[in-house]
């Protein structure tokens, strides 16, 4: 599939464009790898897991709920750690909660992540120690309610930038992330939860797979030149791999009677989730690095001139 | 809806008042950089660094080979950047950027190049202090703020280096300073403005290519200037960032250019990303609902609720 | 100008905005060209051909400002019959002595006037420092047989004195009048010649000629600006002469918007020639006395006594100077201690001194704000000289290459010098920057601007004033009580500057007071016209007299431009007498009326009986236009009311210089000493009187050498300052131009396989340097003499020390000098360029030697075959 990038590339007519010595117009995002794409994955997995745990709790699947809580707590704590590590001044992480700014997805996200991770951790802690079970359940439901927001706000985080590939994909990116979060949580559940509880995660995975594939497909089709980074180079390869893995995960999850199948399916789902986030992250970087993705679309009227 | 829209994009008469300052606030101040008189002396770059104690480049110095530009772009350590563009201009044809010369005879018809006149464009770039500043909008800590002069400034003691402002800027201005971790950019010499002085770069500029003043006044001056240049036959003169109708609601620091913006490394028609933020949130909310619904659907099976009973 | 004088260039930009046409003539396309209306790329070293063709254009099309020319220039003066022009002698003027390579200038004189080049009489040492040559001793000590060597500096701000009125033909028809001579002299300087010699297409030349002539005359004026690039040629003085002829013909001198503006290379270079730091001048352009000519004051000033123009008062200037230096100890009885002044014995110029260092004659050296180890032509020769001293004092802001050459200079690497064998003891004394001391800058328009110390100098850094004051104080303390007569001049100096502060900093204001001068009552003088030759006045620099009139430091005046007239007399103080345009009497017609309302500046107010206007009139304010000197009048009284050029002995601008120049009364195009082509105008290839030094480390290339086929020129960039001592150590400047590069055209890059940003080795007979390559269309190949001539551009800021490093372009240059002022030809030479880095260590010497062998340059004798005819 490595040749695919070039083939697809040639499908998009590359208009002549001028630039300043070919230098990028935009700054390369300074977010660190693996911190930020890793967080995108962890946050989504945690969010969907918490929601799954809450519904599992409601539907009496205690063990599935327990597994979901563990995943939600573990992934959100790891995610917070990744985000703090990504800061230029980590000791100032608390400044994130100085204000609540609706115009800043990171501020909104902080106000989602902070209670979410607190609640998820509290519910897992209660579960582990057996203390304050009522509060623990309440915390679990709370994190379950915040869970969907955890899955999709990160798409706004990326889209609300000048990075062409991220910004132009803003109508689809939440669904890509939502789908990927569902498969991620499903994958984690397939790995951790008892076989008897695999029904819901299998269905979650299938729904997630469909949502992610459909949204990604639309990104690739709709964006034209700006979508190029999603199908070329390293990000293109990562996303191709992601699609293959998620399809494999979905297929494996439907295989019955094989002990290893759910484990392989879970692993494939999680790997797909990582590939999706790293791929999308890398596509944005690539589009910021090449001035053609800034100049040509703006020249073609996607800039201010294209304002309704 | 209109007012909401204009808080995020579109024309906004008084961003300072919009930011909550009382009516008594000073007029919006800005830069008009007239590149038609820039001589590329880089005094602005040096004056800026001297006044604002901006660190010199770290590491090995290297020649960039981009004409006389060895800075490359605006960055955390370069709040002014003078671009140098070498072109050959043949009458009745668009200028040819010479770019990075390579080995071998000059590209194209040699006799062609011989006829062309060399044109050397210079332009001192700076933070645009947008009417709708994406960096400010997306800053989660409130470190970036709008001053009483309508400019956009980073508070060094608040910034935690989250880096969100960096990809948010449609001009590629603000950046994280290596080794420091915080974001830095032009402050339009906020400290000097407070003391009634003009910014260091404008004061150092020998040819008044960099003009500082109330934005309204600068816009009028720029309109006159561009008309004057057109009358003189400089048809390629155009203003960049002057129009309050543009994608960022007009720049606080705008330019008179002699070629397309991208030739100077400027985006031709940028839009503040937060213009689309309401729509983004709507999509994200729908997708979140999609997650919740999907999870719920996944548990839809016979006896699902019965199992809950002990 | 935008490159080197960005602050001054704002006025050019302002003029452009007000409708002026800006024409930039330069081998390369610079930041100035970027803002100019017309850029004229020409071959380095061919400006006289270009300017000469402009003169020819003016003369052959009758475009001169005829009334101005007849009344204010020496165009009507009739020359002697025995004068012969370069047209007659194939590139030589009459009077050339092929053995000594000097001119005997009697035949250049006006008919009827005596050849009495006043300062020249005092100035009869040979231009050549060629002591080894036959007859050198005769020339040095030969008394009356000395040739007129025409040291331009020694004529001071004016020209040599003339006595007797020349015969004049106001109709300008006399075949021997200057106007007709000029016309014939430049007749072959045509647009076609410009194309052939300079590589400037004739259409472009015509465009320039039309623009300049259309913009000159009664209603309009044109200004010429030049930087040191014009001066650094073996014909540098004649470059300026050519410009002066053009401007005088067009009536562009002494009028607003006109003139020739010399842009100096450093903030106060004008001040350093005014006060001065030149070996052959005393303050205010008074010539330095000569050991064998000027035994007493009378002999010294004799040539000027009884002459015309303001130099006629020289005795008053000299006596006031001696009173300033020796105060009470100087009186009429002891000839005002004239015998205590130092004396010249010959050429003590910087390059001569380097040779004296090499020969062991010069044993100690002060370097003050100068970095010859990378900043002077043939840097290696400079370093070899420094390495042969007993002691060297370096005063600079940072450890420059001239202070560290003994440990890390290029010769240590090549093995030519060994640190332990260098006898020079180097004393490095850090200097204070201008922000750390009080003082004045004098800029190119003679404007003194005071600066106040903003901070104390760091560490051991001290101002130059501190250094010399305390050095003098300590020496005087050591000599105190001495009865040795030779110590008297030191002990009797007026060395009484008050000091203050923790560093005992001497008062710069007290020095300014001494420079300004005072009368017997101790009160500050207000004008040099108050100076007397009877010892009643004291004045350190006569042309600066009045800068501290009434005890007020006028150099510190800073009234903004919008609060005063356009002449801005209250910004700083301009010598002389705060006059902003010299010779401004020429802004009015002979009757004293402005030439035009548009260009009015100063004029005669008949009612008041005074000159008036926007500026201080450059003539006696009450001298009416119809004043005619009575017979026997002297000094300024001998000038008529219509004579604007009051420092000239005939009051006129000299189109033809009957005396005062070593290399001809008129400029002629000669090729640079190292040129890729022959001279199409004359059989004489180069300036016949130029000064060359043969030395194994100073080999020259033959003209048209195939081994060194390319022309190169050196220059500055905005980002750095001269040889980099003040900029290469500063991070903010170093990052802007981080390393040495060369600029080449795409065509040359293709021809030699040079890659953009790759390395190139540039080789001359002196050495080879390496530079990063910038391939740019801003450098254009030129069609010259039927060939394509490539030029290599080399900024000369670099050296091995500091943050921004690189080889020094000046390593490549030879030392070959203009005969008038002994400036080196650093703007035009030849070289080879090849891709890749230069050899290191001893291999570098082998590389250079191989080139020399291929060029046929004998390793032992330096004379280049075919290029040395009659020049040494």
Give an overview in words.
The complex is a heterotrimer of chains A (308), B (310) and C (872). Chain A has 308 residues and is mostly helical. Chain A has twelve helices and no strands. Chain A is globular. Chain B folds into two domains: 2-271, Alpha-Beta Plaits, CATH 3.30.70.20; 275-310. In chain B, the strands form four sheets. Chain B has a four-stranded mixed sheet. A three-stranded antiparallel sheet of chain B has the order 3-2-4. In chain B, strands 5-6 form a two-stranded antiparallel sheet. The radius of gyration of chain B is 24 Å and the shape is globular. The model of chain B is unreliable at 102-114 (pLDDT under 50). Chain C has 872 residues and is an alpha/beta fold. Among the domains of chain C are: 350-432, no CATH class; 691-854, Beta Barrel (Barwin-like endoglucanases), CATH 2.40.40. In chain C, helix 3 (47-60) packs parallel to helix 12. Chain C is globular, with a radius of gyration of 27 Å. Chain B binds chain C through residues 37, 39-43, 45-46, 49-50, 56-57, 61-63, 65, 67-68, 70-71, 86, 88, 98, 100-106, 113, 117-122, 206-208, and chain C through 2, 6-7, 9-10, 13, 17, 29, 31-35, 39, 717-719, 731-739, 741, 746-747, 749-750, 753-757, 772, 774-778, 780, 803-804.
Attribute tags:
heterotrimer, B: 310 residues, alpha+beta, Alpha-Beta Plaits, 2 domains, four-stranded mixed sheet, three-stranded antiparallel sheet, 10 helices, C: 872 residues, alpha/beta, Barwin-like endoglucanases, three-stranded parallel sheet, disordered C terminus, electron transfer activity (chain C)
Residues in β-strands, percent of chain A: under 5%
What is the succession of H and E elements of chain A? HHHHHHHHHHHH
The biggest sheet of chain A, with number of strands, parallel, antiparallel or mixed sense and barrel status, is: none
Estimate percent helicity of chain A: over 70%
Q: What strand order characterises the main sheet of chain C?
A: 21-23-22-28-20-26
Shape of chain A: globular
Number of H/I helices of chain C: 26
**Helical run tally of chain A:** 12
Structural class of chain A: mainly alpha
Strand content of chain C: 5-15%
Gist?
With 308 residues, chain A is mostly helical. Chain A has one domain (30-302): Formate dehydrogenase/DMSO reductase fold. Chain A has twelve helices and no strands.
